[in-house]
Amino acid sequence: MTPNFVDDIQQLAIQQAGGASSDRKSPAIKRQIVFICGRVKELKKIFYVSESIFQGLVKGTIGPKDLYSRLKSIGVMENDLEQMGGSLITFAEREKIDPEQKMTGLWTKTDVLHNQVDRLTGGAAEGLLYYNDEIIFKRPGGGLWFLVKTDEIEYLRPLFRYLEDTGIGGERSSGKGHFKITCDDAPYQLPKAKEPNSFIILSRWSPKDKERIVFESDAAAWELLNQRPRREVMHTSEGKFISNNLLRLFAEGSVFPLQEEKECYGRIEPVEYTGTAPAYEEIYRNGLALPVMARIGG
């Protein structure tokens, strides 16, 4: 823990203890410190925040002390924060989504039992079972959304229709992974701090060689992913050579100190080669990071 982090907890503990004593060794303040540390552990379980909370974090109007003090098991006031599964939302948002407070999360992951197919008989193999994970949205009408930054959206609409027809992920032949894409043509404005000192990436980032990154900073929080590209089986030509190169990417949600404000960071680079020599075909992976300029630390 950084010194600022420890000081924030101690100051908040004194405040919530009534401010009658500033002795950090007093029983009342110790109890508050234990209570706040418990809240910090709960916050570490959160992977997603609502749009309104994200805007506050970006603009610096919501800081660590706000998260510790406003987090409630069951909210009462409009600005109270509640944990819903792996997500953090406000009490007002919870009232709209789940006014009866019956939902423990926006989605759930469940294990689905399958029979393994005997390749000799073509039927279900006796005693050979396996499980697959499935994610189910609890709220009717729930789904996923994503941002596309482009001046030529018409070039992407055929790709969206193709994905609607083919689906994504596994078990598409049994009806999984199919969806309907709707495009909102209204421009969406990403939040931005007035005097940013950091940037948050909304997509995975493969930095260019010339892009300087500062890791040793209180404003830096990042995760490094090691991945090998995967491609659709339907696009794999039998008999052709395929080479997968290891790719290291910074995960979405990572935070870095701002060195140079840019529209995007990173690069698109070849990560896979297919075909027969010497006419290899290159397959590219998107490593461009869509940044949100933020004010971390107030």
Short description:
This protein is α+β, with helices and mostly antiparallel strands and 298 residues long.
Structural class: alpha+beta
* Rg, alpha carbons: 24 Å
Multimerization state? single chain
Overall spatial form = globular
Structure, explained:
The chain is of the alpha+beta class and 298 residues long. The protein folds into 4 domains: 3-96, no CATH class; 107-141, no CATH class; 148-187, no CATH class; 198-294, no CATH class. It contains 6 helices and 14 strands. The strands form 5 sheets. Strands 1-4-3-2 form a 4-stranded mixed sheet. Strands 11-7-14 form a 3-stranded antiparallel sheet. It has a 3-stranded antiparallel sheet with strand order 9-12-13, with no helix packed on it. Strand 5 and strand 6 (124-137) form a beta hairpin. Helix 1 crosses helix 2. It starts with a helix and ends with a strand.
What distinguishing features does this structure have?
298 residues, alpha+beta, 4 domains, four-stranded mixed sheet, three-stranded antiparallel sheet, 6 helices, 21% helix
